[in-house]
Amino acid sequence: MLKRERHELIMRQINLHNRVLTTDLVELLQVSEDTIRRDLQELCDHQKLLKVHGGALSRSYQSAYDDDAIYAREAKIAIAKKTISLIKDGMVILTGGGTTIIELVKQLPVNLRATFFTISPFVAIELAKYDGIEVILIGGIFSKNSKVTFGGHVISQLAGINADLCLIGTSAIHPENGLTDTDWEINQLKKAMFQCARKVAILCISEKLNITLRLKVAGLESIHHLITELLPSDDILNTYRSKGLNIS
Fold first, then answer.
1. What pLDDT does residue 66 have?
2. How many CA atoms lie within 13 A of 168 on its CB side?
3. Which of 2-6, 108-112, 206-210 has the lowest mean pLDDT?
4. What does the chain look like in DSSP terms, one character per residue?
5. Backbone angles phi, psi at 204, to 5 degrees
6. pLDDT score of 48
7. Which pLDDT score, from 0 to 100, does residue 96 have?
8. How are strands ordered across the β-sheet holding 19-21?
9. What is the Cα–Cα distance from 191 to 168, expressed in whole angstroms?
10. 97-133: pLDDT as tens digits
11. pTM metric for this prediction
12. In whole angstroms, what is the distance from residue 16 CA to residue 172 CA?
């Protein structure tokens, strides 16, 4: 495989999953770890990604306020607009982090009155712009990679929340394998979030459909709504619909 082809594939993985592990890229591309490290360094030097210990991060994931850096932003805006229909006055809502959730917050009705719990400081800052929204940022250890709070203290606080709706982005979803991720700590955090809401909505660009990563978060039976930028009638969504998910 040519270097240009490796770089293209690495960037696709970064854009889809926000982060990649060097070990996963070695397995995927069937090249040495040294080759992957050099590739990541070169892409970092060209400001395509952010190189971190053990892998790399998407620049858009780190630059929540840089609209030009957000991957698939139009698709995420479309998802955000669809999600608004699930949010009503008086609700208690729990959110994860990420650029799709931030796009959702930007689309909220100006006069909305609700309570939002979030693990993301970026999301909390956007929510604070609304007069009628009470914002509760769940504190804990701050993940420099995912830009959310995590750890036992966060999970303990989540246990005391009984939200009407939990809104979470995802790195991957599959009809048989459910919701999966690559980060152990974030994986445990998402599991806890699933337990403290009456309904769960997954916000997911279509490129992340039918993908399975290393760590399972939850089966599809734990998810109530799947929201993508596609038309609900799109054939790729039929399997998810057959599993009982409400498709938007």
1. 61
2. 31
3. 2-6
4. --HHHHHHHHHHHHHHHSEEEHHHHHHHHT--HHHHHHHHHHHHHTTSEEEETTEEEEHHHH-TT-GGG-TTHHHHHHHHHHHGGG--TT-EEEE--SHHHHHHHHTS-TT--EEEEES-HHHHHHHTT-TTEEEEE--SEEPTTT-SEESHHHHHHHTT--EEEEEEE-SEEETTTEEEES-HHHHHHHHHHHTTEEEEEEE--GGGBT---SEEEE-GGG--EEE-SS-TT-GGGHHHHHTTPEE-
5. -150, 120
6. 87
7. 95
8. 19-21, 55-58, 49-52
9. 11
10. 989 999 999 999 999 999 999 999 999 999 999 999 9
11. 0.84
12. 8
Q: pLDDT grade, residue 64 (50/70/90)? A: low
Report d(CA 152, CA 168) in Å as an integer.
Answer: 19
Q: Residues 204, 210, 214, 218: is their CA dihedral positive or negative?
A: positive
Structure confidence at residue 62 as a pLDDT band (50, 70, 90)? low
| CB-based contacts of 142, cutoff 8 Å, min separation 6 | 121, 148, 149
- Is the Cβ–Cβ distance between 214 and 187 less than 8 Å? no
176: which 2 tokens? 């048989």
Average pLDDT, the chain: 92
Decide the pairing of beta strands 141-142 and 149-150.
Answer: antiparallel
